[in-house]
Amino acid sequence: MSSPQLTHETYADFVASNPFAVVHCWAVWNGYDHQMRSALADQMPHFPQIAFAEFDVDPPDHHDICRELNVHGPPFLALYRDGVLVTSRVGLMDRADLRAFLDGLLNPAA
């Protein structure tokens, strides 16, 4: 499974048009992004109600979004509910932690 690649033009529309959205912020030079991409692909079938996408942090026209998200380095995940950033996390997660993190988007603590 692959995720669409967002640009600065498509980012806001993607987030706004999906009730649950996860954006993987990545960079070509980061060796951990392949592992994160693989872990996300493994989880996608378990979360059909979540829209997944990727966002390359390196293009200069993407830096404003990175600043808004406070991306200090990839891999970085941004989780959105109804167009609003709910939480984010930097760094590689194992599959169990990733699954719990994604489940938290769908089932927030009361």
Structural notes for this entry:
By secondary structure, the protein is α/β, with parallel strands linked by helices. Helix content is 33%, strand content 25%. It is built from four helices and five strands, in the order βαβαβαββα. It has a five-stranded mixed β-sheet with strand order 1-3-2-4-5. Strand 4 (76-81) and strand 5 form a beta hairpin.
Keywords summarizing the entry:
Glutaredoxin; 33% helix; alpha/beta; 110 residues; 5-stranded mixed β-sheet; single chain; 5 strands
What are the SSEs and their pairings?
Blueprint lengths: L4 E2 L4 H6 L3 E7 L6 H11 L7 E6 L6 H7 L6 E6 L2 E7 L4 H12 L4
Parallel strand pairs: 1-3, 2-3
Antiparallel strand pairs: 2-4, 4-5
CATH class: Alpha Beta
Major sheet, described briefly? Answer: 5 strands, mixed
Compute the average pLDDT: 90
Helix content: 25-40%
Structure summary, number of beta strands: 5
Distance between the termini: 32 Å
Number of helices: 4
Global morphology? globular
Can you tell me the number of structural domains? Answer: 1
Low-confidence stretches: none
The CATH superfamily appears as Glutaredoxin
| Helix/strand/pairing category | alpha/beta
**SSE order:** EHEHEHEEH
User: CATH topology, anyone?
Assistant: Glutaredoxin
CATH architecture verdict: 3-Layer(aba) Sandwich
Radius of gyration: 13 Å
Beta-strand level of the residues, as a percent range?
Answer: 25-35%
Give the strand order, joined by hyphens, for the main sheet. Answer: 1-3-2-4-5
Protein name: Thioredoxin 1
Domain Thioredoxin: 1-107
InterPro entries: Thioredoxin-like_sf, Thioredoxin_domain
Organism: Rhodopirellula sallentina SM41
